[in-house]
Amino acid sequence: MSQESLKNIRHVVAVASGKGGVGKSTVAVNLTLALAKAGFACGLLDADIYGPSTPMMLGLKERPGVREGKVIPLEVFGIKVISMGVLTTEDMPVIWRGPMVANILQQFLKQVEWGNLDFLIIDLPPGTGDAQLTLTQQVSLSGAVIVTTPQEVALLDARRGLKMFQQVNVPVLGIIENMSWFVCDQCNKRHTIFKEGGGRKVAQELDLPLLGEIPLDPNVAVGGDGARPVLLSHPDSLVAKAYRELAQSVQNALGTGAQKESPGEFHLRW
Amino acid sequence: MQRPADIKKIDERTLGISWEDVHESIYDATFLRENCTCAACQDEWTGERKLLPGQLPQAVLPVTIDSVGQYGLKIKWSDGHSTGIYTYEYLRGLCQCSSCRKK
Q1: Residue A6 carries which DSSP code?
Q2: Which of B9, B71, B74 sits opposite A169 (nearest CB)?
Q3: pTM higher than 0.80 for the full model?
Q4: What is the least distance, in Å, from the CA of A132 to any CA of chain B?
Q5: What are phi and psi of A112, to 5 degrees?
Q6: Which ranges of chain A does DSSP label H, i.e. alpha helix?
Q7: Phi and psi of A267, rounded to 5°?
Q8: What's the gap in Å between the CA of A22 and the closest CA on chain B?
């Protein structure tokens, strides 16, 4: 399998969730930016073919250029980005069957000129379907992180996500609990809107580290929809701090033996 | 799950895998081809083999062997077949060395 475009990338990390609506894209965008702020060369591959949301979160309107048959990723806030959303118009639904999804993902991986990167973060679509399978089969992922919210049903799906990665032998670096808590600007007290400690519980059950607990913050929605992610629009907020800590946890998790293991990508001509 | 530390061509007909636990496995090419797990060679639901030993027209050899993600190998064969994924777990179970065959 040809993987030329990816061989200069140190770590490929997938951001996954068992179900939709847990804020996976928001986490992927802000995690990528936090890693970039920490001085790493970072790329973001939005693999949610049917509902790409990173272009809006990052204010991307232009289309990527092509050079020598390779797609040049867009650059914004110091990161490289490619998404189905920059290849189609906003109001145009992508109505494709599985094989087409696999094709476009392979192109995102092989025909995009990513260059030298420390981290390529892949924002996976929710669930355990075609896109996830293609990526885990085509790419030697350094690891995956699973985003969940504190409710029981989301936690149940996090377990499914974990099982999928275990089956294809991708190390799961840990759990990220999103919408974990909320600090009221009136009383300044920390409120756990959903159940408390759900992410911690599932992390313990599945014997995984809890990489971060990201608070709810209205600025996240304002930032996301206003094309300036919260990490940049409100760098002093608690949520921005949580993302910086998350970036550190992800680096630590990758540093402790979860790197690409031998034989990694292997090719033998008989 | 055991992972391979090294994968190599031993001779024209034999693939060798050294595992992380230092076990050495050898596989005859025809044996591997006959044990392909793709849906054309093995029924997806019953597990019944559709490709039976001795049915292959000639001695089939690998053309290329590539990794599939982190969990297996994909072999392109000289008869044009390439749809099977051999997971490391499955390959380890297929090992033809004398001590594994006794189990």
Answers
A1: G
A2: B71
A3: no
A4: 11
A5: -105, 130
A6: 24-37, 54-58, 98-110, 130-138, 152-167, 198-205, 218-225, 230-233, 238-255
A7: -140, 130
A8: 26
The whole-number pLDDT of residue A80 equals 96
Question: Tokens in use for A39?
Answer: 């001085």
Q: How far is CA A158 from CA A18, A126, A203, A204, A234, in A?
A: 5, 10, 10, 13, 29
Q: In this structure, what token pair is assigned to residue B19?
A: 């595992």
**The predicted structure's pLDDT at residue B61:** 93
Q: Is B62 helix (H, G, I), strand (E, B) or coil?
A: strand
- CA gap A181, A235 in Å, rounded: 18
On whether ipTM exceeds 0.90, the answer is no
Report CA torsion sign: B24, B25, B29, B33. Answer: negative
Does the distance separating the beta carbons of B3 and A268 come in below 8 Å?
A: no
Terminal CA-to-CA distance of chain B, rounded, Å? Answer: 18
Q: CB–CB of A16/A229 below 8 Å? A: no
Q: Is A261 on the interface with B (CB under 8 A)?
A: yes
CA distance B1 to chain A (A): 8
**Tokens 């992922």 map to which residue?**
A141
* Number of residues that this document lists for chain A: 270
- Residue A56 corresponds to which tokens in the numbers above? 């809006």
Write out A100-127 in H/E/C secondary structure.
HHHHHHHHHHHCECCCCEEEEEEECCCC
**pLDDT tens digits along A73-132:** 999 999 999 998 877 766 666 666 666 677 778 788 888 899 999 999 999 888 767 778
Q: What is the CA radius of gyration of chain A?
A: 18
What is the count of residue pairs from A and B with beta carbons less than 8 Å apart?
Answer: 68
